[in-house]
Amino acid sequence: MDSSEVKKDNQDLLSELIVKIAHTREFHYVVGTLVPEVTKIWAGTSKVKKFFSKPVEKSFQKSFVNESVLPSETVNNLFNDELITSNISKLVPSITSVINFGLMGLNDISQTIEKLSSHEKAKMVSEIFTKINSEDIAKIINSYIRIINDIYQTEPNFFANHVSSGFATIYEKVDFGEIRDFADNLSPDVIELVKKINDEIWKYPAKFVLLLSLIPFSLNLGTSSLNVILKGFNQMAPDLFVDILFSFLKELNTKEIGTLLSEISEVLNKINTGSSLIGEPGKPQMPYSLFEFFDGIFKSIEKNALDKGIDSVAQMKNHYNNAFFDVMENHPEILALYYKHKSLQSEASRLSSKKRINLLSNSSDSLFSKIIDKMSLNSKAGDLGEIFNSLISVMSKLRKTYPNIIQTTIEEFTDSIDVSEAQETINWFFEEAGDAIKPFAKSVMPSAINFVTNLITQDGDENDSAISEALMKLKSVLNNGGI
């Protein structure tokens, strides 16, 4: 069959479809409503034209809009017709023509609406939204989602292959300045819309749970897309990129950010509680899930980029700390909370150490032996010795390279100390600590003194002369109050 025959078949099919549409309730209602309005416009203020238009108006309303004459066939039933469904693919060119025609009509309508006053625009647009059949929209969404899912079975990159060129044209022609103004005006309205939508969502929590199941998919998709986007940012000059970034920072709504942080804190609390609930007793689930997560990341990370990134994070952390603590001075209540949680973190570390020591202390002799064997204390003690040797070597090299560095460092440290304040603090500390530590000190000091005495006893080796000299100086100090 040549192209002319195919075209003729398509035209015949379209003609039959049009005829069928003309016999539907929807078509009759549209014609019966539209034609009288058109005749009114044609007649205008002319009495002669009105004389001829009146019978036409009544005739069309009677023949098309009256319930008794409306046909039973509907557009929905029409598209269940076997002739139409079996040849729907042949109608694609005609359907796209209709869509394009509709888009042209929408463009003309939007330009007309644009000329109206703000009050008239609001009234017209509100009527459009209130009269749209939401149920049909839901059915359309379901249908097209199924259509797209079927398309993906044969063409996984369908949108990438067919939408990119159209997007390029749209991106070129759209006025982004107007979009920015639109965004500024839209913000309070969207927030109110979100509130109302949120109220509706929680009327059906089960549906919302199903919606949440799309989050991992969205995160994966977002991560892949973000990789592509960030490659574009990395092609920008650093000064230009930072200038844009700081411009965005100035426009952020700090009040909303504060509220968001409060909500995030509640979410984090739920995550921590949930991890404990779904894990085994005393063993939250989070450590196991995080291990798998980080392991997957580290296997694919680029090491040089990571190195540079960590350096940048360290510098930015310094900037963050400076800004953070400068602001803290103006918010004493938050500063108090900060130190409270720092204390809790220290307590958590202390309790963890206490738990580890208690485990050793309370273990049976056999278990203790196994633990010590596993710890390989002898080899670790040797490692500590090697570490000590290395530190001594480093100190020696440091002194050779910078002969006065130890003295200079200590002098800088001592010069910065408030001597009178330090002396007062040390005096009251030892006075108050003396009584508290006395029972313990009396029990251990004899052993400590015997230990020191044994160390400084002359044994007839090369250290005897140095020990003898040190003891003479100590004796002189004790007897005479000076050397």
Summarize the main sheet: none
Low-pLDDT segments: none
Q: Report the sheet-strand fraction.
A: under 5%
- Tell me, briefly, the overall form: elongated
Strand count: 0
Give the C-alpha Rg. 42 Å
Q: Output the structural class.
A: mainly alpha
By DSSP (H or I, 4+ residues per run), the number of helices equals 23
The span between the termini is 123 Å
What's the multimeric state?
A: single chain
How would you state the average pLDDT, rounded?
78
Order of helices and strands: HHHHHHHHHHHHHHHHHHHHHHH
**Estimated helix fraction:** over 70%
Explain the overall architecture.
The chain is mainly alpha-helical and 483 residues long. It has helices at residues 3-22, 25-43, 47-65, 75-78, 82-86, 92-114, 118-131, 134-154, 158-162, 164-173, 176-201, 205-212, 215-233, 238-251, 254-278, 286-300, 303-328, 332-362, 365-375, 377-401, 405-415, 419-455, 464-480. Helix 2 (25-43) packs antiparallel against helix 3. The longest helix has 37 residues, at 419-455.
